[in-house]
Amino acid sequence: MASTWIFLSLISAFSFATSDALTKKALVHGNIYLVAWFRIIFSLPFLLSLLFIIPWPQLDRSFYLFFAAALPLEILALVLYMKALKASPLSLTLPFLALTPVFLIFVSYMIVGEKVSLQGFIGIVVLAAGGYALQLHQMQKGYLEPFKALLKEKGSLLMICVALIYSMTSSLGKMAIEHSSPLFFGITYFFMLSILFAPVALWMGRHDFKPFILKKQFRSLFLPGMFFAVMIMSHMIAISLTKVAYMMSVKRMSIVIGVVYGYLIFEETNIRERLLGASLMFAGFILIVTAS
What per-residue string of b and e applies to 30-40 under the rule 16 or more CB within 10 Å gives b? Predict the structure, then answer.
């Protein structure tokens, strides 16, 4: 059982990072709202086809409550996530998803009464050191300069907000899964997300919609959508097999994968310090979520 959720979490990490890298390429010419919407849309054909195969669970009031509570937060996170990808390099934005476990400590405490141990505290320190290392080249201007640089980086700030929201949606999603099933929740959740996000995407992308369709810019979202679908399925099943924090810790391997993509695809600079920073943040993440 343990090896199953780890394997699925790694698949989710790879799919997530790959979808993000391909999506960032699409964001060069595409409206962020339309890009975000079409990535979900292109994930749906494969996901919806599974509804004819999987058994449908009996749903209760709690399922609908957690389902409805998570959706508005997911929409907000989606908008901020796309803005972060467009505003800043992958290697400076994705590592901040590692802050999700820090927020999960408090969210989990409010929900199930979990407390931070000494190991968890050390993990937070290591994670913070990783964030500092992302801007290590700025140290020559002063020891506080890396922190100032992070505050100036719009994409980094946006991704910190996303990390906070994800700590809430992942917990709400786990609760909804416990009152349904992993695949049923994942499929219906993102189907509803595509419907609710449609007015936002069409309104905010109204000036770019015509060229987006006529110039067939949407085609570049097909592959990101397919990888996004794989991420959803593997994520939902894995999170149902273990604790939210454990699953998310392994999934955050997408951070390191994303930094590598940033170097290979987008030729982002200062890759050594950013890879070091991403690795430190991930190590801190692991210390936090494995703390007893």
Answer: bbbbbbbbbbb
